[in-house]
Amino acid sequence: MWGLTLATALFSSEDISSVQWQLMDGSQLLGVGEHQLTVWDLDTGRGAAAVSSEIPCPGRAQSALTGARWNPHQCCSQVAAACDTHVRGFDLRCGQQAWTVENADAQLVRDLDFNPNKQYYLATCGDDCRVKFWDIRKPTAPLKVLVDHSHWVWRVRFNHFHDQLVLTSSSDWRVLLTSAASLSSEPYGHLLDDDDDGPAQSGAQLADGQLACCEEHEDSVYAAEWSSADPWTYASLSFDGRLVVSRVPRQVKYKILL
Amino acid sequence: MAAPGGSSDAQRRARNAALKDYYGCKASSEMADNDLYNLNSPHFNPDMYLHQLIKESSLTDLMDTEANIYKQIQSLDSEMQTLVYENYNKFISATDTIRKMKVDFKKMEDEMERLAENMTHITAFSATVSDTLQVRRDEINKLSNTHVMLKKLQFLFELPAQLKDAIDKENYKQAVEYHLQSERVLEQYGTAPDTASLQGLRAESAQSITRLVAALQDRLQDDQATPEQIRESVQLLLQLGQPAEALCSRVIAHAQRRLAGDLAQLTSQVELARAAADSDRPAELRLHLPKDVLEFVDVDCSSFLSNLSLFVTSYKELFLEPKSRCPEAASRLSDCVRSQMDSLLSAVDSRLSLESAAGGVAVLARALDRLYRRLQASAAVLPEGDAYVRAGMELIGGATERRCRQSLSQLCAHLQQSLSAVRQALVVPAPAPSSAEPPPLAEQLATFLGGLAEQIRAAVTDLKAFIQPELSFGVQARFRNTFCRQHVRETVVVGFFRHFVETCRGFCDAAGGEKTSPSVLLLLSRACRDLDTSTVHYLMNFVDDLLRIEDKSGLTPLADINSEVRAAGQQLINHFVRVQGLAVSQMLRKSVATRDWQHANEPRSVRSVMKRVVEELAMMDAQVGSVYEEGAARWEQHNSSDSSRRPYHGPGSQRQRHEWSSYAPSQVDSGLVANIQKLFSERIEIFAPVEFSKVSILTGIIKIALKTLLECVRLKTFSKFGLQQIQVDVYYLQVNLWRFIADEKLLHGLLDEVLGSAIHRCLQPALMEFSVVEALCDRG
């Protein structure tokens, strides 16, 4: 066992519901408060942390922030926050709102995730039981809507390596693995030039749709995450404390790899 | 020994034939034998007869026979004598007559001889007479010939003057007759050497004829000339040997000019109608009211068609009968007729397309009928007339189809109207919700459905005017078929149901659905259900009966419409449940989210928001109940009203409560209990489709609301008093919600989970005494 020593203490003017490391080099930390986002600069050498910026999120007093994510593109200069029924993107360099997806969810946006390989693509989920994919350059209409869950969707995650694999967890006790191949960064359909073995290949290609449904949980599943080590493993955690680690089905894996 | 069947038959037949032959001979010889013994027969043989008689008869018979024969002989003798005497007398008188004749003949012979002598005398005399007259007769012949020639010459000399006279008096026919006569005469003398006077004559008459031709040509150019005048002129010109081809084109041109006038009249009517339809136009342009479509067809089209027919008839007489005078005459005529008919039909088409839905169907039907009759009547006259009848039929088909579409859009507009009426009627009482007042929903539903059915019936009955038996085009099987099947049934009726379904779906869409009042959703869902169960069936049968549609192949089957309507109804009721569920959820969510549960005071009463939730649900219950039936609930568990409390403080719940309080300090254990509990409960689909019953609908709403409560509670952290407040609220809900719900276990499961989660999220999980909870709820 290692002895853990306190490296630094973070201070904020609000209760922090979650924090996230900056995705590039871990030199920054993003904290989600009730009505504002706080970014700290970490100085690991000196073991000190300083508030880099505090970004207040516009909105009604009752509506708290439900989540936020670093944008993995553009050197992590952007963060996006789920606020009430909207998603707001902030540019950290100026601390201003850069873009917004109004009414991304009819009730409440619970979570969002950036496509790790396509820089403008974003997925949101929430209380209208739907998972929606957006292009933040054109936030008026979703690119795709999944309506597979029968209750609120709490978490949506893209696979870091194969971004057609989308993981969602919901309070209908299910975790769903869905393919969004049509929106993925990998070639889809007949984009490949049609060789002689074209038909055989297209038959083997992954189509859009539900790939796997994990029904092991017996309560609402509030968290689901891909393994950072293995692209084919994911875990989900439900209210009753049950953690389920699952694998992507073998034939799906082969379809993606071959 | 038996011969084979076939050959034995043949043999027998041969034998029979031989026997028949033999007996036939025998029979005739027997007949001859009988003759020999017959007294009156020519072959009678007295010896044989006597011999036989002696041989066969007794003595008395013989005596009798002898007496008999003797008597006969005597009578025959006396007869013979009388005959001989009579004949003798006749012979004598004949001899006398012959003698007298001989004398007479001699006298006659003498007279004949004298007659012959006289005749020879007469012949001799007549020959002498004719010889004497011969000379005179020749002279007379010569004189009469001269006279005839002189007459002709006189005519020729008089000709120029007469021609001029006739032309001046516009008596062209007379002039042409004169000219033709003179032509003949001149031809007769054509071979003779031309004298100066004859040449002069020719020149003069030619001059007159040129004038005549020019006059006639002028008349052809004249637009005011009547068809009869034209016809006469052309006939005369043809007689004068003018080229038929040029005349053809002139006549056609003249007819086109005349018909252009009629056509202009038609198009001006179309323009007027368009102006009238365009109410934006300034008033002075609309001073002239257009004729209605019936009058338009009756007067304008008819006059055009009759003029055209008249022209075609005279043209045919002039150029095509009995043989074509010009090779292109027929094709020119048909070209001209085609272009004229095309412009007529297009004018009629544009006029018909301007006919608005407001005009009666009957008028339009009669107008189309007139048009069709006129076209049929002129079809006999016009070249390729059948094609125009067909084109007219197409026109009629188009007009009726347009009409059907109009009535469909009328129906749709009416649907919109009645929907907004329903919406208004339902919105008005909303600000003052008093449960004493009877719910207007059922009433609105009845009027809405009744209006719908009535409109469809009226529309179809209206459209039936197009297939009345007295309409000439209505009886055509092909027209009738397409009209009834494709247009009325598919376009209007089925189209309307589709539109209705579409409209209903529109209400469920996220975009438009939010604004729609839930009661409208409820009403529409019920309307869909009623349509599905009876109205669609009734209306489709009504239509099929009215239009006598028997063969239903290729048509949209009733079941399809029914299932579409049913699906729309299901969608609507699901949406209703969702909207209402979310409304209640919103209240619960806010009530949980905005409260500081960690610093709550000890609960003194049920929170008011719970009471509001229960009230809201009771209102929904009443609303749904006014439209939907109760549905199958599990009532058998609790028949009396106070049993509603029993499940909660029954042995099972009691124990559970004890478990909670005893295990409360240990989080792990309570989690274990909850898990074990869940092992035996079924997964609950929150936004599951509901049935068309009050209980199922309410269950759906409550499920959504409680699940929201559960999730919201899980996001909070509770102090001891916070948890106790939740306990009170949950109990209150339990006591008040059971009467709305189908399966009480479901309610208990969800509420237990809410409380369980609150215990999970509590820092000092300690529940209240049950009696206190009960007292607090009773006070509320």
Automatic annotation (TrEMBL), chain A:
SMART domains per the UniProt record, alphabetical: WD40
Q: Which residues form the EIPR1-like beta-propeller domain?
A: 17-175
Might you name a Gene Ontology BP term for this protein?
protein ubiquitination
Q: Which organism is it from?
A: Amphibalanus amphitrite
Tell me the InterPro entries matching this sequence.
Beta-prop_EIPR1-like, EIPR1, WD40/YVTN_repeat-like_dom_sf, WD40_repeat_CS, WD40_repeat_dom_sf, WD40_rpt
> What SUPFAM superfamilies does its record include?
WD40 repeat-like
Q: What is this protein called?
A: EARP-interacting
Q: Mind listing the UniProt keywords for this protein, alphabetically?
A: Repeat, WD repeat
The record's listing under Pfam families reads:
Beta-prop_EIPR1
Q: Which gene does this sequence derive from?
A: eipr1_1
The text of the family note is:
Belongs to the WD repeat EIPR1 family.
Stretches forming WD repeats: 102-137
Automatic annotation (TrEMBL), chain B:
- Please list where the region (Disordered) is annotated: 635-660
Q: Where in the cell is it found?
A: Golgi apparatus, trans-Golgi network
Which stretch is the leader sequence?
Answer: none
Task: Please name the Pfam families in this protein's record.
Answer: VPS51_Exo84_N
Output the Gene Ontology cellular-component terms: cytosol; EARP complex; GARP complex; membrane
Query: Quick one: where is this thing mainly located?
Result: Golgi
> Where is this chain compositionally biased, Basic and acidic residues type?
635-645
Query: A GO biological process this protein is involved in?
Result: Golgi vesicle transport
Say if the entry is tagged with keyword Protein transport.
yes
Keywords (alphabetical) are: Coiled coil, Golgi apparatus, Lipid transport, Protein transport, Transport
Task: Give the UniProt family note.
Answer: Belongs to the VPS51 family.
What this chain does, per the entry, is described as: Acts as component of the GARP complex that is involved in retrograde transport from early and late endosomes to the trans-Golgi network (TGN).
**What PANTHER family does the database record attribute to this sequence?**
VACUOLAR PROTEIN SORTING-ASSOCIATED PROTEIN 51 HOMOLOG (PTHR15954)
Whom does it interact with, and what assembly results? Component of the Golgi-associated retrograde protein (GARP) complex.
Q: What is this protein called?
A: Vacuolar protein sorting-associated protein 51 homolog
Q: Which organism is it from?
A: Amphibalanus amphitrite (Striped barnacle)
Its taxonomic placement starts with:
Eukaryota, Metazoa, Ecdysozoa, Arthropoda, Crustacea
